[in-house]
Amino acid sequence: IINAESKYKDVYIVGSSDTGSNNYEANKNKYGDAIYETSSSYVSSNSWNIDYSYMPNSSNPSFPRGGYYNDGTDAGAFNFSYSHGGANLSSSFRPAVIVTK
What we know:
101 residues; little secondary structure; two-stranded antiparallel ribbon; 1 helix; 8% helix
């Protein structure tokens, strides 16, 4: 993914420091990825339909969508979060976004 042509990936920039809050601020006006379109904050139940959101950082660079089966009302079509990208019993995985420096 990292070496793929730019037409096959969206690149997110790291904020002034590599935190969910700063990364959200640095990328919140990026159109077409459903972050700008569906959320108002980097964390908490601030996505549409009160779905959970949390912006990735380089320590947790994967960008899972939809939530985990045990997220209850925080899960849903507009949920986005961060993950280390490893195995997890409560979710499936496909590469969507990887945060790099």
